[in-house]
């Protein structure tokens, strides 16, 4: 399945804005985060489990056990963002 991945605020500054990713069906937000943690030192630092990072699937805040569907938009962002 293909998803759209987005980073916002300070995460966007270091990791980039948007990209398309292909994931196995049934991938959870936690599984996606694990894949991203292994990508680079910057990803590992900014998305580390001890850091406060929020996630939304299709613009709805969610927990890491949320299953990502085909075509979903998944966004990661710090808990406080300006507008």
TrEMBL record:
Natural source organism: Roseateles oligotrophus
Keywords of this entry: Nucleotide-binding
PANTHER family: MOLYBDOPTERIN SYNTHASE SULFUR CARRIER SUBUNIT
Keyword Nucleotide-binding among UniProt keywords: yes
Gene3D superfamilies according to UniProt: 3.10.20.30
Protein name: Molybdopterin synthase sulfur carrier subunit
UniProt record similarity statement: Belongs to the MoaD family.
Domain of life, per lineage: Bacteria
SUPFAM superfamilies linked to this entry: MoaD/ThiS
